[in-house]
């Protein structure tokens, strides 16, 4: 009887571990996708900031004339 309980618990643990490993894989993939999107957006923001700086500089030159 005790041997059967051990086997049942081991099977349950194996299934739980399998589900958790699957969840970890899904979360890792999701994190990587969001990280890539964030990196891309940051690059876009940096580029826009540079353009804004140029526009501000040009505007100051125009106003200064």
Describe the protein.
The chain is mainly α. Helix content is about 95%, strand content about 0%. The chain contains one helix and no strands. The protein has one helix at about 1-65. The longest helix has about 60 residues, at about 1-65. The termini are far apart.
Descriptive tags:
65 residues, mainly alpha, 1 helix, 0% strand, rod-shaped
Shape assignment: rod-shaped
How much strand?
Answer: under 5%
* Overall pLDDT level: 94
Q: State the secondary-structure class.
A: mainly alpha
Main sheet characteristics? none
**H-E string:** H
Q: What's the number of helices?
A: 1
The percent of residues in helical segments reads over 70%
* Number of extended strands: 0
CA-CA gap between termini = 95 Å
In angstroms, what is the radius of gyration?
A: 28 Å
Enumerate the spans where pLDDT stays under 50 for 5 or more consecutive residues: none
